[in-house]
Amino acid sequence: MSTRLPSLAPADLDDAQAALYDRIAGGPRAAGPQHFALTEPSGALRGPFNAFLLAPDLGDALQELGSRLRYRGGLPDRSREIVILLVARHWQSTFEREAHEGVGRAAGLMEDELEALRRGRLDPFEGEEATIARLTLALLDGDLDDSDWNDAASSIGEAAVFEVSTLVGYYGMLALQLRVFRAG
């Protein structure tokens, strides 16, 4: 897929773009083991992050929300990655699937579980992970009926339902931006 945006190399950025680049490339996504490449060989940001540089104030708010969801959310890492990978599958987001399969492996997802998520199957998951996966699929269909709400709220709690719905919305937005800008 060809991109609609040029890769914005660090040397070509204005001050606001450079400050945002530094927050993304030097923040928690770049700390610790790398499960996917955050930059291209030229130094340009990959995936949705290159587009964030188009509007640095908005891009900063988006990257901060993503960072909080990934590094300061309340869901267990495996559960968070199940949500993200189901969103990536739903929206056929190649970049998010590839990036978060690596993160998912590091969080403990096994190859058979990753394959099940690629196919939209939930059979390998039990307990809270199964509830979170079912919740995610319902949200991807656009809403929760009362039965789904009652099951999720009583099983994982209202705060976790809020976090899952936020993850679904955030990664759905990234999938849209990746499609619009032909960035993966």
Automatic annotation (TrEMBL):
Q: What is its EC number?
A: 4.1.1.44
Q: Establish whether keyword Lyase is in the entry.
A: yes
Q: Which UniProt keywords apply?
A: Lyase
Pfam families annotated for this entry?
A: CMD
Q: What is this protein called?
A: 4-carboxymuconolactone decarboxylase
GO molecular function terms attached to this record: 4-carboxymuconolactone decarboxylase activity; peroxiredoxin activity
Signal sequence, start to end: none
Give the top-rank taxon of the lineage listed in the UniProt record for this protein.
Answer: Bacteria
Top EC class, one word: lyase
Q: Where is the Carboxymuconolactone decarboxylase-like domain?
A: 56-128
Keyword Mitochondrion tagged: no
Instruction: Say which species the protein is native to.
Output: Leifsonia shinshuensis
